[in-house]
Amino acid sequence: MALRVDILTTFPEMFDPSAESAALNASIPGRARAAGLIQWHATNIRAYAQNKHDKTDDRPFGGGPGMVMMCQPLWDAVTAVEAMDPRPATRIVLTPQGVPLSQAMVRELATRPRLLLIAGHYEGIDERVIEKLAPLEISIGDYVLSGGELAAMVLIDAVARLLPGALGHELSAEEDSFAEHAGQRLLDCPHYTRPREWNGMAVPEVLLGGDHGAVAKWRLEQKLVRTKARRPDLKGPA
Ligand code: 9D3
Question: Which residue's CA lies nearest to atom 11 of ligand 1?
Answer without folding.
Answer: 123
